[in-house]
Amino acid sequence: MADTASFSACPACDAAPIAKQIAENRMHQQGDILLSLPTIHCAGCISAVERKLLTIPGVTSARVNLSLKRVVAETGGALEAADLVEALEAIGYPAHELDSTALSSSAADKAARALLFRLGISGFAMMNVMLLSVAVWSGAEAATRDLFHWISAMIALPVIIWAAQPFFKNAWTALRAGHLNMDVPISLAIFLAGGMSLFETINGGEEAYFDAALSLTFFLLAGRYLDQRTRRAARSAAEELTALEVPRVVQLTEDGEATVPLAQIAAGDMVLVRPGARVPVDGIVTKGDSEVDRALLTGETLPVAIGVETIVSAGEINLTGPLEIRVTAAGRDSSLSRMADLVTIAEGAKNRYSSLADKAAQIYAPGVHTLAFLAFIGWLWASGGDIRFALNIAVAVLIITCPCALGLAVPAVVTAASGNLFRKGLLVKNATALERLAEVDFVVFDKTGTLTDGDVVPGALDDLSMQNQRLALALAQNSGHPLARALAQALQLRGISPATLTDIREVPGKGVQAKLNGTDVALGRAEWLGAEAGQGTATFLQCENGKVLEIPFEDHLRADAIDTIAALKSSGLPVMLLSGDNDAAVAQAAEALGIDQFHARMRPEDKAAKLKDLADQGHHVLMVGDGLNDTVALASAHVSVSPASALDAARVASDIVLLGNRLGAISDARAIARSARRRILENFAIAAGYNAISVPIALMGFASPLAAALAMSTSSILVSLNALRLRGAAQEEAQ
Amino acid sequence: MNVLTWLIPVSLLLGGLGLAGFVWTLRSSQYDDPDGDSQRILTNDWDDKPRP
């Protein structure tokens, strides 16, 4: 927040080093795997996790960070994150991979540590100089006073020059780009306070502001440090999408197969996609039958059967049989690239959000400069040309108005609120996300993977006779199809034992067939068994007597999905469901959840268009989603949340990541964000009130170094205490 | 006032010692995981020998 105020002056100057840093991290950290562990909380957890990871061959070191609830494992590049996640889940700790670069601790930590170092040094200098100043204030005279001023100068000047560099640098960048930001008045006040005091010291003057210059530096560095800790290096979701593209393609030419780079493929070419591979282009199937997994693109839970003349899109995964595809669009024209383009546009729009701190800085900086300048001119005229006296007053005005409290107002609140949210299982990734979350008045959910956990469960099992249940279990156990596996699991949970079958045979893309006591039985698709397919997701069982029974499936909702929706609705927020799944499945889920507004068969651009409609109607939309098909919507929503299990691109596109499995945290988050916003506004009011009292005093020339020190410390402490109040308030709300 | 010629350097030196201590804790990453450190003293994991 304050950093956007200070850094935004020249986005390009900032972006370049950040991009470089990310690249360096990528190089440096190859092989380091960063996992988020939302459930760890004790000493036992730490050693269990570390021990377990060290038993995996290839892991050379593992270190848990309990404050951040994550673990870093050094693997030397030999292992995949999935291996470690599996091992940890086996001992009861759910884990999710974090983007090792975007959320990388090392880069952010280094910057935070550098700030903490400057903070420590300026704190040390501030206290020593303050000690000497107390002697001066209490009446040290003549030679003693001069000596104390000289000692103060020797401590203060080098410290100011070194410790306040972050402000000087930002102010300089802003000025060069022709902007004013918060750092300009800060730098000017620190610089003039130091320079003026040195001049007074040399001339044996009575008043020196070394302590004020140092406490300014100290308090503002404290704000900057808090800010740094809540900030994450930004990474583009559009890049993540392009990373999903397949770099090499098997092209079918008259001479046979050839592996060529994707860039060489043009519309009209023929490509071969083997089972298990990602479809590299948009095209039409010319030969082959298979099933494709479209979950990432469309949100459909189940694989879709495809054959000749079916249209496929880049990014889908071919599951069972080889496919020959005639290319209709490749590379920049493919649907995946078009989606990446949409995300780029949406991300650009979001970066232009102007935070409260930005707005405050825009009013504040010119106001302060005008005031100081007027004071200088006014006193120059009133005192009949005494430049030294007039300059002293102008500097006093700059020091008194210096935004100590303003610099702390936002970061202190954001730190307290982010900490609060983290304990509830939400990781805030974007500095302005909290402010945007507070403005939300409409919530849009994705279905698959967000409200449901991506699994399906068979419904109405009681309608089947015991005999048929045993038969269904025996058949389902012999199939790898997701529906069959879910059915087998559900039946086993009911304690059913499987019937004995012979001649079991799985027919790819169709189902399983076998013989029971000599008669044909089967489990599979409706068309295959000669039954009529219904609306929803279902599998069909051909029984011993030749009858075909439908076994319907329902999406498995997340444990607290219903409560979350109810809580959001009761706090007056309209809720909408947008899904790429089929009508029946979406209607069923919406009914179970109590959502009245829902839309099925939404393509990624439909979702984004729907969000744009809502935004045009004046709504501030919170989007919750997890898939590739949600990425555009997540990036274009006012604020977005994705579960930790979401795809990389979706997680990168969203502002807040849900670490635990609890959706309920979302409704808590809004409450916390709203009270955080109230605190920020209160803090601005405190800072403004303090200025309203102290500025006239400074303008009249009554400000002394003692008054400046008192006023500055009191207002900063008041603002910080007000921010801490958020902790208590949020805990009350949670109870 | 002669006492000041002693006291001021002494106070600066003592403060400087504290500052050096702070720099050392900062350099050796002692502020990275305060919650974890407070829990780690409870485990017996590396009681017999230091962590490699």
Automatic annotation (TrEMBL), chain A:
Q: Name one GO biological process term.
A: copper ion homeostasis
Q: How does it sit in the membrane?
A: Multi-pass membrane protein
* Domain HMA, first and last residues per copy: 31-96
**What Gene3D superfamilies does the database record attribute to this sequence?**
3.30.70.100, Calcium-transporting ATPase, cytoplasmic domain N, Calcium-transporting ATPase, cytoplasmic transduction domain A, HAD superfamily/HAD-like
PROSITE patterns the UniProt entry points to: ATPASE_E1_E2 (PS00154), HMA_1 (PS01047), HMA_2 (PS50846)
Task: Write the record's keywords in alphabetical order, separated by commas.
Answer: ATP-binding, Cell membrane, Ion transport, Magnesium, Membrane, Metal-binding, Nucleotide-binding, Phosphoprotein, Translocase, Transmembrane, Transmembrane helix, Transport
Task: Say if the entry is tagged with keyword Lyase.
Answer: no
Q: Which residues cross the membrane?
A: 115-135, 147-168, 180-202, 208-226, 363-383, 389-414, 680-700
Which cellular component, as a GO term, is one annotated location?
Answer: plasma membrane
InterPro entries according to UniProt? ATPase_P-typ_cyto_dom_N, ATPase_P-typ_P_site, ATPase_P-typ_TM_dom_sf, ATPase_P-typ_transduc_dom_A_sf, ATPase_P-type_domA, HAD-like_sf, HAD_sf, Heavy-metal-associated_CS
Q: Where in the cell is it found?
A: Cell membrane
Give the highest taxon in the source lineage. Answer: Bacteria
One GO molecular-function entry: copper ion binding
- Pfam families given in the database record: E1-E2_ATPase, HMA, Hydrolase
Belongs to which family?
Belongs to the cation transport ATPase (P-type) (TC 3.A.3) family. Type IB subfamily.
- Supply the PANTHER family for this chain: ATP7, ISOFORM B, CATION-TRANSPORTING P-TYPE ATPASE-RELATED
Supply the NCBIfam families for this chain.
ATPase-IB1_Cu, ATPase-IB2_Cd, ATPase-IB_hvy, ATPase_P-type
Name used for this protein in its record: Cadmium-translocating P-type ATPase
Name the species this protein comes from: Halocynthiibacter styelae
TrEMBL record, chain B:
Q: InterPro entries, alphabetically?
A: Cyt_oxidase_maturation_cbb3 (IPR004714)
Q: Which Pfam families match?
A: FixS
Q: Tell me the superkingdom of the source.
A: Bacteria
Give the residue range of the signal peptide: none
Region annotation Disordered: residue ranges? 31-52
NCBIfam families according to UniProt = ccoS (TIGR00847)
Protein name stated in the entry: Cbb3-type cytochrome oxidase assembly protein CcoS
Organism, scientific name? Halocynthiibacter styelae
Q: What is the lineage of its organism?
A: Bacteria, Pseudomonadati, Pseudomonadota, Alphaproteobacteria, Rhodobacterales
